[in-house]
Amino acid sequence: MKIALMSAAAVLALAGTAEAATLRLECGAPGPGQNVCMDSAKEWAKKTGNEVQFVATPNDSNEQLALLQQLLGSGSDKIDVLQIDVVWPGILANQLLDLKPYSKGAEKQHFASIVANNTVAGKLVAMPWYIDTGMMYYRKDLLDKYHLKAPTTWDEMTAVAKKIQGAERAAGNDKLWGYVWQGRAYEGLTCNALEWVSSFNGGTVVDAKGKVTISNPNAAKALDTAAKWVGTISPKAVLNFAEEEARGVFQSGNAVFMRNWPYAWSVMNQDGSAVKGKVGVMMLPKGGNAGRHAATLGGWQLAVSRYSKNPKLAADLLLYLTSAEAQKYRAITGSFNPTIPALYKDPDIIKASPFMAELYPTFASAVPRPSTVTTSKYNQVSNQFWNAAHDVLSGNAKSADALAQLDGTLKRLAPAGFVAAK
Amino acid sequence: MTSQTLTSAAPVRPSSAESSLQRSRQRTAWLLVAPALVVLLAIAGWPLLRTIWFSLTNAQLGDLTQLQFVGLDNYIGENGVLRDAAWWSAVANTLRFSVISVTLETLLGLGVALLLNTPSRVRTLLRAAVLVPWAIPTIVSAKMWSWMLNDQYGVINVLLQSLGLIDHPLAFIADPDLTFFTIILVDVWKTTPFMALLMLAALQMVPSDCYEAARVDGVPRLRVFSHITLPLILPAVLVAMVFRALDALRVFDLIYVMTSNSRLTKSMSVYVREQLVDFQQVGFGSASATVLFLVIVLFTAGYMAFTRRRMQGV
Amino acid sequence: MKKHPVETLLYYVAVALVMVISLFPFFYTISSSLKRGNELFSTSLWPAHPSFSNYASLFRDQPFGAYLLNSVLVSGGAVLLSLGVSVLAAYALGRVSFRGRGVLMMTILGVSMFPQVAILSGLFELVRALGLYDRLGALVLTDLIFTLPFTIWVLVTFMRELPKELEEAALMDGVGVFTLIFRIFLPLLLPALAATSLLAFIGAWNEFLFALTFTISPEQRTVPVAISMISGGSSFELPWGTIMAASVIVTVPLILLVLLCQRQIVSGLTAGAVKG
Predict the structure, then answer these.
(1) CA–CA distance, B239 with B303 (Å, rounded to integer)
(2) Does C213 lie in the same domain as C120?
(3) Could you tell me whether strands A135-139 and A119-120 are parallel, antiparallel, or unpaired per DSSP bridges?
(4) Among residues B231, B143, B242, B156, which one has the least CA distance to residue B194?
């Protein structure tokens, strides 16, 4: 009996050393968001008998990128699976494993546009994990109160915002603003400005062939439209707003419209929120009747480090985390938008976040930032773009001049046009 | 006793025994300095050399092994840092920031030091209080102030409004006309205590008989201050200003955390970090880091040469 | 000395003003850290229902206590090491005149002028070469880059002030140089050491960039890095309440230390300023 037990223990121990591995997973900064990620990873660990350790990174995505680059650049095996922003595949491609041999075609379930974004030089360097797009939040109760319907163009939106802001302020609600968004000179402004520009059919700064297209009248018109908001329907402070500042204003009931990412939905509908149940979402307005609804594509991917000691297991973990099952769990518990179109018809998900079904067309047609074509220069392109936009918004430059100057700077960055990685 | 004879005898007739003692003392001195030197060479010398080397290449953060030697291109080439308008605007911002904030800190620091130097019952309490801003980590005070200065839910705007000083909330950290002023304000808040303490130290060393004599002669207070106190503490004030200026020229956290980092407020250090980290251009970034370092060295050397006489004169 | 009542009044008004300006921001940080949910966005000076939930969640979501310990170990280690090394160097630089001394002093001052970000890549290589990556030792070593020049400079000025007779008497008695430094000078230098180590400790305690770059696993994390890693439900959400709570926690030890040693700090700075 005793011997049998002992040998059983020995067999178990042997099995343990032979198969169980410890994988290091990086999925953001500690907090509720990481907890959702941990749940799924622990599920995988239980199923396969391996262990997953969590590596945290700073909240700021610039710092994250710098840290990952330094880590991967040194060939360190301290990370096996990592999350990367939608604009990073071009920058990090050389340090990441090609997932094609492991995925068995799983990528075909996901939005084709994101898979294309994650394919660099024929290698699938990352798997879509969740998707973000810009969307317009509005106060249903306020629009109803003034019998206004949800606007479809920026001009209509401006008019509605002005009207409600004026009326409410006259009625004593003097903190109310018409529209809040992200105007700080950072990546978020690139996202906002790209939405304005492409809603006016002004292109995407650099086109898919690598040609700089930003200096055009439509783009100038888009920036002028936005510049007029500052100080009228948007507080001047919007020039230093990131996502959370905008949400802070909107969630305390002090704004009619807000441009933000999907995460704001679940936060604003928690108990204790001043706007719970009063918020509606819609597509971002068009730039005039000839324009289109444009929402910048954001979101995160999962990738496997080239220096992982257990590439096969790491890929397995990654495939589990990006599977329909895990994405459904994330959609329901954390309102992370799935990257698998089929999930947008799932009744459980629609029940938890009704906006997901409504905004499906936005997710499917989101505008990518020009990161695939500008590869490692993307951060510079984006930086120049947001600085130009910020100059126009703060009244330090005329839109046409700022864009012409931006055009020159970008052409100097890539004299022969940007060329996507071979 | 023995020491007295020794000190008086030594300069007169240095014996051979003493000079050998002197030599062995010098050897010992080098041995004692050695550990510090080795550590500094390893952690400062080597990385600095690497930075200078990188500045002559086109290295990228993603892969530091793939690089080409490009000579001085990163400095004076067509797209070199010295020809980049953004760099020069960062230099201008930094200089403007340093001059204004160091001047304000010196003046206010002197004021606080005079308060601290006045004997009274609340002096200890005051000294404890002024040390608090200085003990708070910069990153924390930057976050704290941006929270308080927010135009929508910031307490400062509410206070100013209720005092009737402003009629609508100001966007301190967003309005381009105000941001610069705001950064300086926070920097002054945080570092004035340091200046005040340095000057307090100097004030306390002014011999009290100077004041006594002046009081007996009936010299007006202001005149005592400008003719006796100020000249006596000037050397200490100048030294304190160098140390502050060195910090101010490298200003980073405050601007990085509080402002929107647009061109209007970017400092030299923020520029360097952007190139090195955000743009992954280790080569170009290292070149700008080297230039930044040289600017600081030049400034210090110039300042020291300019004030040498005054610092030693008293 | 008698003073005019108006003058006394002005003095107290000025003192009150300075105290309010100095203390208000920290007071407001504490008050914010005790607010919950939407209350944070209100501007009341003190929450109607103070709650420690932000502190609780700080320690519940992550091993914040362990981070505090790491910070203490790193800062303490860096301070001890730099004191040990710099007391020796300060004796040599302060009391022995030898050729190259001025150049050495200027070089050491030069080191403290480095912009940290400029030497990051080189330091990273060094840390990896020494096998210290992702260990607290890496931080102790790299923090020396700013603590060491500082402690050397301040201690040199103190060393110079010690009476010459003491040293000569000791040397006449045939005492070794280490005994001289550690047995005779060190006790005299204690107040100076307290001030210098406190200032160096503050520097190391607040260090962020090196700690972020040279460590990665949670077991090695220090508090400033942990603060930068606090996040909400998504990568965009910033839980201000928790951040404020963490700010209070990281600051309180420093304020206590500073208040305890304020007398030494003043005298330490005195020597530094006047002779510097």
Answers:
(1) 10
(2) yes
(3) unpaired
(4) B242
The beta-carbon neighbor of C231 closest among A31, A76, A272 is A31
**Does residue B199 have a pLDDT over 50?**
yes
- Mutation target among A57, A176, A236 for the B interface, most CBs of B within 10 A: A236
Residue of B nearest to A394 (CA): B176
| Same domain membership, residue A180 and residue A306 | no
For residues A421 and A377, give the distance between their C-alpha atoms in angstroms, rounded to a whole number.
11
Name the nearest CA neighbour of A137 among A200, A72, A77, A182.
A182
| Subunit contact A239:B174, Cβ cutoff 8 A | yes
Structural domain count of chain C = 2
Residue contact C230–A34, C-beta within 8 A: no
**Does A76 reach chain C within 8 Å, measured CB to CB?**
yes
Contact B175 A70 (CB under 8 A): no
Rounded CA-CA distance C57/C36 in Å is 12
* Same domain assignment for residues C91 and C181: yes
Contacts of A241 (CB under 8 A, 6+ apart): A180, A181, A182, A183, A184, B174
Domain of B167 in residue numbering reads as: 86-313
Q: What is the pLDDT of residues B12-53, one digit of tens each?
A: 444 566 677 778 888 888 999 999 999 999 998 899 999 999
What's the full length of chain C, in residues?
A: 276
If asked whether residues A36 and A176 sit together in one domain, one would say: no
Tell whether A33 is within 8 A of chain C (Cβ): yes
- For the question of whether the overall pTM of this predicted structure is more than 0.90, the answer is no
H/E stretch holding C44: none
Examine the domain organization and report whether A45 and A111 are in the same domain: yes
Same domain, C35 and C87: no
Range of the domain at A342: 21-125+297-364
Contact A376 B260 (CB under 8 A): no
Considering only CB atoms, which chain C residues are within 8 Å of A83?
Answer: none
Q: What band does A18 get if pLDDT is binned at 50, 70 and 90?
A: very low
CB-based contact C260:C188 (threshold 8 Å): no
How far apart CA A21 and CA A18 sit, in angstroms, is 8
Chain centre to alpha carbon of residue B47? 22
Q: Is A2 domain-assigned?
A: no
Do C165 and C211 belong together in one domain? yes
Domain shared by A189 and A322, yes or no: no
Domain that holds residue C150: 62-275
Residue C199 covered by a domain: yes
Contact B282, A376 (CB under 8 A): no
Residue C155 within a domain: yes
Please state, in angstroms and rounded to a whole number, the distance separating the CA atoms of residues C128 and C77: 20
- B21 in a domain, yes or no? yes
Closest residue of C to A337, CA-based? C234
Q: Which of A317, A311, A310, A295 is nearest to A363 (CA)?
A: A295
**Residue ranges of chain C with pLDDT lower than 50?**
273-276
| Residues A38 and A120 occupy one common structural domain | yes
- B92-151 tens-digit pLDDT: 999 999 999 999 999 999 999 999 888 888 888 888 888 888 878 887 888 888 888 887
pLDDT at A183 over 80: yes
Which residue does chain B place closest to A183, by CA atoms? B260
Side chain identity, residue A297: L
Percent of chain A's residues with pLDDT above 70: 94
What is each CA distance from C110 to A126, B191, C148, in whole angstroms?
45, 22, 12
Per residue in A32-73, pLDDT tens?
777 888 999 999 999 999 999 988 888 777 778 888 887 887
Are B163 and B263 part of one and the same domain? yes
For all residues of chain B together, what is the average pLDDT? Answer: 82
**Contact B147/C at CB under 8 A:** yes
**Residue C242, domain CATH:** 1.10.3720.10
Contacts of B154 in chain C (CB under 8 A): 43
